[in-house]
């Protein structure tokens, strides 16, 4: 049996911990951990918080749209919505007017809770952003968007 050569690395890093994918995952894990910590103090999870943020911007989104936007499955998105509804933070009609979509909306309590937790989450993001020199921020955002687009093709 003939031995094959190992695949060529996409860049010159000799250690996998210096690969782009590894560093992106490390940054994502650090962000998620920091967000989990501050959101736990407010009785929310990251998907619940993201759902509240999205509904504040786009009232009436469906479960399917919210699940896609918060990077969870539709089944998980439905669990998130049910939890938020039971907590009195969102409302959804009991039945759909047409099709299966039941548009969700923030309640007054949901808007108030979001305002409180935004400050905590934005402080986490501020810590993250302060690690980037301001003159490099626009390029970083462009590069991250390009990375996502390249992998979504």
TrEMBL record:
Domain of life: Bacteria
One Gene Ontology biological process: response to stress
InterPro entries noted in UniProt: HTH_MarR-typ, MarR/SlyA-like, WH-like_DNA-bd_sf, WH_DNA-bd_sf
Gene3D superfamilies: Winged helix-like DNA-binding domain superfamily/Winged helix DNA-binding domain
Domain (HTH marR-type): residue spans on this chain: 17-149
A family per Pfam: MarR_2
UniProt-listed PANTHER family: HTH-TYPE TRANSCRIPTIONAL REPRESSOR YETL (PTHR33164:SF43), TRANSCRIPTIONAL REGULATOR, MARR FAMILY (PTHR33164)
Native source organism of the sequence: Streptomyces platensis
Name of the molecule in the record: MarR family transcriptional regulator
GO MF, any single term: DNA-binding transcription factor activity
């Amino acid at each position: 049996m003939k031995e094959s050569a190992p695949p060529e690395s996409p860049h010159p890093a000799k250690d996998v911990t210096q690969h782009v994918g590894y560093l992106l995952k490390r940054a994502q894990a650090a962000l998620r951990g920091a967000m989990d910590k501050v959101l736990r103090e407010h009785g929310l999870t990251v998907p619940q918080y993201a759902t509240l943020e999205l509904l504040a911007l786009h009232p009436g989104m469906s479960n399917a749209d919210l699940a896609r936007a918060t990077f969870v499955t539709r089944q998980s998105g439905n669990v998130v919505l049910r939890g938020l509804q039971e907590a009195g933070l969102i409302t959804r009609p009991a039945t759909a007017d047409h099709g299966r979509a039941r548009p969700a909306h923030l309640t007054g309590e949901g808007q108030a809770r979001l305002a409180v937790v935004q400050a905590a989450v934005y402080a986490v993001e501020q810590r993250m952003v302060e690690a980037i020199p301001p003159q490099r921020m626009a390029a970083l955002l462009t590069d991250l968007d390009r990375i996502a687009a390249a992998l979504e093709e």
